[in-house]
Design brief:
The structure holds two protein chains of two kinds. By secondary structure, chain A is an all-alpha fold. Chain A contains 13 helices and no strands. By secondary structure, chain B is mainly α. The longest helix of chain B is centred in the middle third of the chain and has 39 residues. The chains are: A mainly alpha, B mainly alpha. Chains A and B meet through α6, α7, α11, α12 and α13 of A and α1, α6, α7, α10 and α11 of B.
């Protein structure tokens, strides 16, 4: 096993990097929590289910006694409406991860295409695409999100991720462009070109493999960025119109004076889980950087 | 120099143009006909006829061709006419925004500049001090991963409820009216402190981490190695490294402004601080679309202006910019 790994040295450095492994373990455990959440909630809310309260597993159902602190019946207590905080947290985590994957994926994809085309083709196309990128970069993303979301009467997690994806790509495009520019002028690419290798083969055979690690890191940053953007949008009151999310939980908490009432079980968990998740993503990113970049490896 | 500035200005003018166009287009081309909702909201108000005839016919004029509507929108915009608020009827949106502006400036200007300066200093310190690097930087990483408003909530809870030292709502006591006096000023400062502290702390992390990474990169650079081989002191090398490392941080400031403003919006919402963010929240809660649109325009324009300012500063502190720019870096 170890011999095999030594041959694939990047993989070896990834799996021996403490930051990468630690962050990854945390992220995977959050994913597990999101997947197993509804099942865990069945254990948590067994009392209600045994007593025939069928809507107990709906995160927006007012089932418990309002304002109750954490107990064995409600692991994270209830909010001002008697909704179970743990149940909301689990469902909120699900939508956050979904937004991270879809929104982050979309932003990475657009940024990659724009940046790559721009850097590889150069000339007029490059000028135009970079003009567009720079314009998008200066307009505050959040303001655009707000104005679009404000006019959408029904918003779902999907729509939210798509608009986040469509506004989050500019910095990726810029970074990918400069990466492409530097790869384009490397010796092996020149060699391929003078050996009359077809452009498509140069792109996918010579340049793409060298950018793979970079793209992966960009995706991780976009993943975290999308989660944060969505939480902010939800908090402003422009999140999904149905269901629950972590930002929505915090908005309700603030609007219903959870701070003044000292309901820490309502205000701490949603933010703590986002912070931990995004911090773990950043840690994985740093770990990957160390693994992919020989200069940064700690020997 | 001229080429650099003219290129930048072209981008800003285009961006401004696109932002205003977006502001015009979104309510018109969104599904669900938001304009009919707008009109119906106004018809429930007293003096509705007056409002509808003034602003709507001016800038909306829905019976006219699209192009005329568009031109009229620009005309109204240059007259400072952003419509009339439903929520604070019959106040014009522009006046409401003007009133909340001083609070935003008082909050954002000190928190951005101080966190930038202090963060850079802290980052440079961490770059050469191993203990600080191992203890402080991880904490700062957590700060950068935190939603601004959640930190605001936690600060408000700890310093306003658990240990009730500071007020957590409003910009001044309810019993006071804004005036130029010491008592009002002190009361204002007292209410200003927590939102300021929140923004300052959350932003600090990003600057410190950026600076630390840049300094480490610069210390590895050839010129630093050369200085080292000449036997110059660490302090001198660090001074050179700092001067080079600060440049990307200035660019970073421009790039981060949008995020900062968005974060400040949510922070104001937590503290009910009467800046643009709080206004926006009220607009959204009361479905006051003119107010939302006015806030959008205002935020975009101020971020554009601030970006331009940073660009100008950049030219002053880095004379190489004109050369590097023409080469197309």
């Amino acid at each position: 096993m170890k011999e095999w790994l030594k041959k694939h040295d990047t993989l070896y450095f990834m799996l021996t990097n403490k930051r990468f492994v630690g962050g990854m373990i945390f992220i995977l455990s959050m994913v597990t929590l999101a997947i197993l959440g509804p099942w865990l909630a069945k254990i948590e809310l067994r009392w209600y289910l045994e007593n025939g309260v069928k809507e107990a597993l709906d995160p927006t159902a007012n089932i418990g006694i309002p304002y109750s602190p954490p107990s064995s019946q409600h692991w994270l207590g209830t909010n001002s409406f008697g909704q179970d905080v743990f149940l909301q947290l689990v469902y909120g985590l699900r939508s956050s991860l979904l937004i991270g994957i879809i929104g982050g994926g979309l932003a990475t994809f657009i940024g990659l295409v724009v940046g790559f085309v721009s850097g590889y083709s150069g000339g007029m196309i490059d000028e135009l695409l970079m003009m567009l990128t720079n314009i998008m970069l200066v307009i505050p993303t959040m303001a655009v999100l707000i104005i679009i979301a404000a006019y959408l009467p029904y918003r779902g997690v999907m729509i939210e991720s798509v608009i986040i994806g469509f506004t989050g790509w500019p910095w990726t495009a810029r970074a990918v462009r400069s990466e492409t520019l530097s790869l384009k002028s490397r010796g092996f690419v020149h060699l391929a070109r003078i050996s009359a290798v077809k452009p498509m083969r140069i792109i996918f055979g010579e340049i793409a493999p060298n950018m793979l690690s970079y793209v992966f890191m960009v995706f991780i940053l976009q993943f975290g960025g999308s989660i944060l953007a969505a939480v902010g949008l939800d908090f402003i009151g422009l999140g999904p119109t149905r269901g629950t999310s972590l930002g929505l939980m915090l908005q309700q908490a603030v609007l219903w004076n959870a701070i003044q009432l000292g309901m820490w079980w309502w205000i701490i968990p949603p933010g703590a889980i986002i912070t931990a998740l995004v911090a773990a993503l950043y840690t994985v990113n740093t770990g990957l950087d160390e693994a992919f970049n020989p200069k940064l490896r700690e020997m | 120099m001229g080429r650099y500035l003219s290129k930048k200005i072209t981008i800003y003018v285009l961006t401004f143009f696109i932002a205003v166009t977006l502001d015009w287009a979104i309510p018109r081309f969104m599904p669900g006909n938001p304009i009919s909702i707008l009109v119906s909201r106004f018809s429930a108000l007293p003096n509705a006829r007056k409002v509808l005839t003034s602003y709507f016919t001016q800038s909306f004029g829905l019976d006219k061709p699209i192009l005329v509507q568009y031109l009229n929108f620009w005309k109204a915009f240059f007259h400072g006419d952003l419509g009339i608020s439903v929520y604070l009827y019959p106040k014009p949106v522009i006046d409401i925004i003007k009133e909340s502006l001083p609070y935003d400036i008082a909050l954002l200007l000190p928190s951005i500049t101080l966190s930038w300066i202090f963060g850079n200093w802290l980052g440079a310190l961490a770059a050469k001090n191993r203990i600080l690097d191992k203890t402080l930087i991880p904490v700062l990483y957590v700060f950068t991963a935190m939603p601004y408003f959640w930190f605001a909530i936690i600060i408000a809870w700890i310093l306003g409820v658990v240990v009730p030292i500071f007020p957590i709502s409003g910009a001044y006591s309810y019993s006071m009216t804004p005036e130029l006096s010491w008592t009002f000023f002190l009361d204002f400062l007292y209410h200003w402190f927590l939102p300021f502290l929140t923004l300052f702390t959350v932003m600090l992390g990003g600057w410190a981490i950026g600076m630390r990474n840049m300094i480490i990169y610069e210390i590895e650079a050839n010129y630093s190695r050369y200085l080292e081989s000449l036997g110059s002191s660490d302090k001198l090398i660090l001074r050179y490294a700092f001067r080079n490392a600060v440049l990307p941080q200035v660019t970073g400031l421009a790039l981060q402004l949008g995020t900062i403003v968005a974060g400040a919006l949510t922070t104001e919402m937590v503290f009910s601080y009467p800046g643009i963010g709080y206004l926006l929240l009220q607009g959204i809660l009361h479905q006051d679309y003119f107010l939302i649109q006015g806030c959008f325009l205002f935020i975009v324009l101020s971020v554009l202006a601030a970006n331009f300012l940073v660009d100008l500063i950049y030219v002053i502190i880095d004379p190489r910019v004109r050369y590097s720019y023409t080469e197309g870096a």
